[in-house]
Amino acid sequence: MVRVDSAGDDVTITAEDATPVRTLILVISMGTAADRRERFAARAAEATVPWEFMDAFTSLHPSLRYDEEAAMLGRGRALERAEIGCYSSHFEAWKRLLASDADQLVVIEDDVIVDWRFLSELAKIDLAAQGLHFFRLFIKRLTAVERTEPGIVGGGYRIVTLTGYPYGGQGYAMTRSAAERLIPYFTLVDRPIDDAIDRSWVHGIPNRAIFPSPIIEEFAKSTIGLDRYGSVNFPKHLLTRRRIAVNIDRLQRFVIRHITGRGKRDAVGPQKRRI
C-alpha cells in the first residue's frame, strides 16, 4: 500500500487503485570494488524490488566534454579524474533510463545503507503523476529550506525544496522527463555532478529531497579522494573572469528565484496536487 499525505490528512491508495509504474534501480559501483559490492548486496538481501549494479566510469563519458577552464571559472578549481568519472557514471544512468522501458529511475551509490522497505513503496509510486520529477534521498550538507510539502510515502516523510548547495549524489529518484531535460544541460562537464544538480536556477528542476533521509552514508573511504579539498594555485589571468562568473551566477539565481518564480515549479511540467 502507498500512503500519501495530502493537506495534512493521510490517504491510503491500494495497489489496485494505482497505475503500474516501472522503476529502474541502478547502484553505481566500481567494477573492481568487490568488498563494497559484497557489503551492499548483503544489506540488500531483504529488498523486495529488483535492482542491479552499474559499473562506474573511471574516465570521461564519450558523450561528454570536459572544459578545465570552465571548471576553474565556475567551481574555482579543475576537477579530479575521479570526479569526472563520477559525473560520467550518473550521466550514463540517466541515458540507461531513456534507453529502457522504465518510467522512472532510482540511482544509488554503493557506499550507502538503504531502507529497502521505503524504497519498495517508492518504486510503486508514479512520480510524474505526483509532479515530482527529481528529489534526493540523501543530502550531504544542511542548507536553507524554501518550503516543505506533504510526503508521498507514509511514516512522517516530507518533501523539502532546498536552496543553495546541499550536495550529495548518493541517492535520488528522477522521472524520464527529468532525464530528458537534464541530459542536454549536462553534456559540458565543468563542476562535480552533485554541484551541477543543485543548480536548479540553471536547468529549471527544483532541488528537492525527502526528509528524513531513507538512506545514510556508510563510513568508508571516498573513492574520489580528498585532494579536491586542498589549496588551489588559481591562475592569475583568470581571477577577474572568476569573480565575474560568480557574480553573474548569484544574480541569475536571485532573478530566477525571486522575480521569475521559475525555481518554484518544475520546468518539465506543471505541479500537481499530491493526492
Automatic annotation (TrEMBL):
Domain Glycosyl transferase family, chain residue ranges per copy: 25-196
Entry keyword Transferase: yes
UniProt-listed Pfam families: Glyco_transf_25
GO terms assigned for molecular function: transferase activity
Keywords: Transferase
UniProt protein name: Glycosyltransferase family 25 protein
Organism annotation: Sphingomonas montanisoli
